[in-house]
Write a structure and sequence with these properties.
With 289 residues, the protein is mainly alpha-helical. The chain has helices spanning 7-37, 41-66, 71-94, 100-128, 134-163, 167-184, 193-197, 205-221, 224-246, 249-267, 272-288. Helices cover 83% and strands 0% of the residues. Helix 1 runs antiparallel to helix 2, helix 2 (41-66) packs parallel to helix 4 (100-128) and helix 4 packs across helix 11 (272-288). It is globular, with a radius of gyration of 20 Å.
Length: 289
């Protein structure tokens, strides 16, 4: 029988999946709202683009930030900021002030928070569960966030939007509040020791950020397993996203081919232990700093 992952992990998992569900609700409900108020396809697609733009802009800088501050406090702060932002948007919609610009701004803010929140939750794992259980904990965390944001949020957002345009956004604010409370209940300090040592050198901040980004790229380039998976999964996301957005079947089938390549290249060329170790190593090294 598998050993339990512990109460701290249960709180972290519940908070992370609640946050992912909320972000998924907003990502789906926002284009629905825009489509109900304009027939311009460019405006509708722009809203969808705004939702995903933070992943392109802040994934790497967000990782640097996560290594410099207490991750638990950062996650709590992000959630409460998103509660306020989403509450303002939902209240504006309820009052009849329908602004696509406001919607896009709020969508950008909450998804920027989701990018950093995801990185922080992953970085907290090695301090929350023992190394022997890290692989299983990662599986639960990634699987839970994917399930709630990618599979549950879509139908739920559509149902709530039918009730009233503001409802999915109020529910979204509620999920962030729940996440903030749960993360606040996780005991412990989750700050990389290196961040405290570097805190006084403000004049060299920009240079250090660039150095850490370059260090991350160099480390990835030297990891055969993760380098291969990064390239193939990037292609997978590109093809499947194209199919989902434009209804083109060719990218859809290409996505299946890429998915097969991901599985084959990972489990045929590398054994299971090597893959697990590759995922565990960066997280553990980040916790040890």
């Amino acid at each position: 029988m598998a050993e339990p992952l512990g109460s701290r992990f249960a709180k972290l998992w519940s908070a992370s999946t609640a946050s992912a569900l909320g972000s998924g609700l907003a990502t789906i409900a926002a284009p629905l709202f825009v489509a109900a108020h304009t027939r311009n396809p460019l405006i509708v697609s722009a809203t969808a683009g705004v939702a995903w733009l933070p992943w392109l802009l802040f994934a790497l800088p967000g990782g640097v930030l996560v290594d410099r501050v207490d991750r638990r406090r950062l996650m709590v702060t992000i959630d409460w900021i998103r509660v306020v932002a989403m509450g303002v948007l939902a209240t504006a919609l309820l009052a009849g002030w329908s602004s696509i610009v406001l919607l896009d701004v709020v969508l950008f803010v909450i998804n920027t928070g989701e990018v950093i929140f995801r990185s922080a939750s992953q970085a907290m794992l090695p301090a929350v569960v023992p190394r022997a259980r890290l692989e299983r904990a990662n599986g639960w965390l990634v699987g839970g966030t994917t399930l709630r944001q990618g599979m549950i949020a879509g139908p739920l957002a559509g149902f709530l939007f039918v009730l009233a345009a503001c409802v999915p956004f109020y529910v979204n604010a509620g999920t962030y509040a729940v996440s903030a409370v749960l993360i606040g209940l996780v005991a412990g300090t989750y700050r990389a020791s290196r961040a405290a040592a570097d805190g006084d050198a403000n004049t060299r901040q920009a240079r250090r950020v660039r150095q850490e980004l370059a260090e991350g790229f160099r480390w990835l380039a030297g990891q055969r397993v993760l380098r291969t998976m990064t390239v193939l999964i990037g292609l997978l996301n590109l093809t499947l996203t194209a199919a989902a957005r434009f209804g083109i079947t060719a990218p859809y089938w290409a996505g299946f081919v890429v998915a097969a390549l991901v599985s084959a290249s990972t489990w045929r060329v590398f054994n299971r232990a090597a893959v697990a170790e590759a995922y565990a190593e960066p997280a553990l090294s980040g916790a040890a700093r």
